[in-house]
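Table S5 (text form). Sequence records supplied for joint modeling of the two-component complex.
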Amino acid sequence: MITPNLIHDPIHGTIEMPSFMEQILKEKSFRRMQFIRQLGLKAFIDFPNAIHTRYSHVLGVMHLAGKITDRLIKLESTGGRQNVHDVLENNKNNLSAAALLHDIGHGPFSHVIDFILKEYCGTDHETKSFKFIDKFRWMDSKGLNTKEIKKIIKGEHEYKFLNNIITGPLDCDKMDYLLRDSYHVGLRYSFDLNHFINNFRILGGNSSDLKSFELGLENDITSIKTAEIFLIIWKNMYDLVYYIKNSRIAEKMIEKSIILRIEMDNNFVEHLKDNDMYLELDDEKLLKILEDGKDKLSSGLARNMRSNTLYTEIDLKNRVESFFPNQLAYASFVDKIEKKEDKVSDDLSKALCSKLKCKNYEIICDIVKSRKPKQINLNSTSATGDPPELSEKSEIIRSIKEEISLKIYSNKNRDAEKIKEAIKYLLNDYNQG
Amino acid sequence: MNDIELLLLTIYYHDNYINGRKRLQKIVCILKEEFGINFSYSFKSYFYGPYSDSLYDTLNTLVSSNIVEEDIEIINEEEEVYQYFYKLNDTNVIESIIEKDVETANEISSAINQLKELNTSDLVRRSKKVSNLHSTR
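The corresponding C-alpha cell record, covering 570 residues in total, follows.
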C-alpha cells in the first residue's frame, strides 16, 4: 500500500513527510522544483545521467535536519542542559520547514540566475524564497512560525546553533547535496552519515548565553577522522564536478545569453522580476525563451549550449598572481573581489572584448575560486581558553588551500599573448580603482 | 588603507606573531569597535568571542599568497593541544603600507601595545563588551 507521506529515496532510504508539511506538496512554488535539476547545466553537459532535482534534494535536507535535531535533543536530555533541549524541541518543526523550503526561490540553472537576479533585478533567490513562503498562510495553523523559519534560512536566528543546522560548515544542506550529487554522477564514496551526525555537539564552553552557542564536533579521533573524510569528499566534488570545465563554460554562455537578452529586450527581465512569471520558469522553459529571442548573439549562445557547441578555453599558461606587480597587489585584488567573482568576471569580459575590438562576450572571463573549509570547532576548552579547531588537529584539512584561477573562453582561436597583455592591464586598472 | 593592509599591520605590531586564529579575531574586533580602526568586517558573537567569516577569508588570502605564514605549534603534546600561529613572511612590505597612512599605523601600534599582553579571558570579556555595545547601532 502506498503511503503518501513516505517517500523512497536512493540516498536516505525512506523519507517521512511530517503531517504539518503535507500541504506543501500541493503548492506550485514547491512543485516547480521537480523541473529544476539540482546540478543545473552540469546535468546537460558533463553528467547527463544526473537528472535528480532540487525537489529530491530539499526532501533529503529536511530528512537530515530532523535526524540531526533528534540526535541533539536526545543528547541534551541526557546531558543535563534542559535549556538547550527546550530550544531544540520548540524549534524542531520550524527547522524541518526551513530545510524543506530553503531552496524554493532558486531559479533554473541556479547559480547563473543568482548573479542575474542580483545584478539586474535587485533581488536574490533568498528574497524570492521568502516571498513564496509568505504566501503559505496555512503554516500558522500548523504551529509553524514563518518569521522564525525565514530567520533560520537566512542564518539570522538569535540561537546560532539552530542556524548552523541548516547553513554552516556542518549543515544538512551540504551533507545531502554532496552525497546525492556524488551518487548521481557515479562517484562511489563510502561515508557513514549516521556516525558523522552522532559526533555533532552543541558547544557553549562555560558561557551561560545560549544564543552564543554553536554546532561543533566531539573532540575525539573518530569524530576528527570522519570529518576529514567528509571534507575530502567536499573538496573532491568541487574539483571533479562543480567546477568541471565544459559545464562551467556552458554556464557562462547561458549567463551571457541572458544578459544580452535583458539588454536588448525590455520585457524579458520581467520573467525574473515578476514572481508569478518567475514561477513559470524551469530549465527547459528558460532555454526555449532564450533560443527564441531575436538577438542573434543571445539566442546563438543558448542554441550552441543546447547543441554542445561550446566556447573553448584559451590557455594563458599563467597563474593569476603573475599579472600583478607584487604579492600584496595580488592579495588586495583577491580580497577586493571576495563574493563578487561573477560581477568582476563579467566586467572583465566586457572590458577585454572592448580592448581587443571584438563583439561583446565573444571572449568570456571566468574567475574561479576554489574553497577552503570554514572553521569547525571541537568540544573542548584548550589551554588557551578557546575551543580547538578541527583543522588544528588535522594535517589533511590544513592542506586544503584556497586558489584563484582566471579562465578565458572564446568562440574561436585567439592570440593568447595579446589576451594576456590586455588582462594584465585590466586587472591592475581594476585593482587601483 | 584596505583590510589587507590593516591586518598586516596588526600582525606586525603584535611582535610579528599572533598565536591562535580566535585571538586574532578578538584583537581585530576590539581594534575596530573600541579603537575605531577602519576594518570593514562585521562580527557575530559566539561563546568564545567575536567571529567574522570575512576576516577568516582575508587571512586565508594572505596565507595562500605567501605574505603571511600560517603554521601549527604544539602547546601540549600529551593532551594533543595544537594552535595556529601567524607571522609575516617578509616584513619589508610594511614600510610601504605605513607610508600610505602614518596616522592609522600609529593608532594600530598604540592599540596593540595595550592588547598584546592580555590573556584569552580578558580579550573575550573586552571584545564581547565592545561588540555588544555596537550591535545596537
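Note: Chain A has 20 helices and seven strands.
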